[in-house]
Automatic annotation (TrEMBL):
Signal peptide: none annotated. Residues 7-27 have a biased composition (Polar residues). It holds the Pfam family SASP_gamma. It comes from the Bacteria. The keyword Repeat applies. InterPro entries: Spore_gamma. This is Small, acid-soluble spore protein gamma-type. Keywords: Repeat, Sporulation. Belongs to the gamma-type SASP family. GO terms for biological process: sporulation resulting in formation of a cellular spore. Residues 1-30 are annotated as: Disordered.
């Protein structure tokens, strides 16, 4: 049986796998899933309240 260059014994294209791995670097498996469920306005409101409390506590 002749061996093809760049292909494993099971037929996996090595270059294709390397390319997919390079594209997925830095992208968490759940990154977009959780980001889409986040309510940005609610987070901003919560952060403002936390900052106001912090300012109140530091002035005492």
């Amino acid at each position: 049986m002749a061996k093809k260059a760049g292909v494993t014994q099971t037929g996996t294209n090595i270059q294709e796998v390397k390319q997919q791995n390079a594209q997925s670097v830095g992208q968490g498996q759940y990154g977009t899933e959780f980001a889409s469920e986040t309510n940005a306005a609610e987070v901003k409101k919560y952060n403002q309240q936390a900052e106001a409390k912090k300012a109140q506590n530091s002035s005492k």
